[in-house]
Write a structure and sequence with these properties.
single chain; 295 residues; 2 domains; two-stranded antiparallel sheet; 12 helices
Length: 295
């Protein structure tokens, strides 16, 4: 029996190791493709021009400054966080501190169904409902394609990410801290906001950073609802273009393979990959600090 258990554990260990190798190999393959396809682009476009020029017009003006795409990406991502953080954090506090076990077991899976809705559905929801029926009556000057409606819908999409991770962080705070608060006559709300939430702040920050990475990489919603006008602006009522939306636009087949415009897909993808990687690295470091406090 022991020999069979050791053989089974060894087989499972080998299987898990193989899965880890596959994940690493896929990631390395993506990096090699991005770098390999981006090099011809940077032979024609200086790297400094790509990073710091303020105009992106690959078809008409042959201008390849990525700042307008970066600006559009972070405009939508920041607005999406402004929508998702209050709702997601309030939901996490309710699930962790107030909800009965039965309510939690039913409500949490139902709430996380939002994460399973196809993003193209969210995009058309923003275009056909959010803009004409919710935003235009309040903001008549808003354009048909705009950053605000895309940001609202992306915010709805990342609420499950924030609420789930924040819920785990809040529940990881030791119960002794809560009992200490109740021992000095603190109310339920005071314990939640002054003891539990500060104690889980590292996990909350990590959840927000991971949600930011999700919002930065969102594709179909911004491609449908935000438009395709790359510009440097802080006005959410106008059309903008994100890095992911530009990749979708060029990948429709209008750009012949081997042209600078086609190669720009990989340069933009490499930039998006670097930004997402940086956000995830910071989130992992914050989560490591969180685990050190309560392990």
């Amino acid at each position: 029996m022991r020999r069979w258990q050791r053989a089974r554990e060894g087989g499972l260990r080998g299987l898990f190791f193989l899965c880890a190798l596959v994940s690493i190999a896929v990631t390395m393959g993506i990096i090699l493709v991005l770098f390999g396809e981006s090099l011809p682009f940077f032979r024609h476009v200086p790297f400094t021009s790509f990073l710091f020029e303020r105009s992106w017009a690959p078809r008409t003006g042959q201008e390849y400054g990525i700042l307008p795409l970066v600006c559009g990406t972070f405009l939508i991502a920041v607005l999406a966080l402004a929508v998702a953080i209050p709702i997601g954090l309030a939901t996490a506090i309710y699930m962790s501190e107030y909800a009965a076990p039965v309510v939690r077991q039913v409500a949490k899976p139902v709430f996380e169904i939002l994460a399973g809705v196809p993003t193209v559905v969210y995009g058309y929801f923003a275009l056909t409902f959010i803009t004409p029926y919710l935003l235009r009556p309040l903001l008549p000057s808003i354009e048909v394609f705009n950053a605000l409606s895309a940001a609202i819908v992306v915010g709805i999409m990342i609420i499950p990410t924030i609420s789930s991770l924040c819920d785990d962080a809040l529940r990881a705070v030791p119960r002794s801290l809560r009992e200490a608060g109740y021992a000095v006559s603190a109310t339920k709300l005071e314990v939640c906001t002054r003891i539990v939430l500060p104690g889980a702040m590292s996990g909350v920050v990590a959840a927000v950073l991971l949600a930011l990475a999700r919002a930065v990489g969102e594709t179909m919603v911004v491609a449908i609802a935000a438009g395709s006008t790359p510009k440097i602006t802080a006005n959410p009522l106008v059309s903008v273009q994100t890095m992911a939306a530009y990749i979708v636009q060029v990948c429709k087949g209008d750009a012949p393979a081997g042209t600078i415009e086609y190669q720009s897909i990989y340069a933009v993808g490499l930039t998006l990959f670097a930004i997402t990687l940086a956000v995830n690295v910071v989130a992992q470091k914050v989560m490591a600090r969180f685990r050190e406090v309560y392990e």
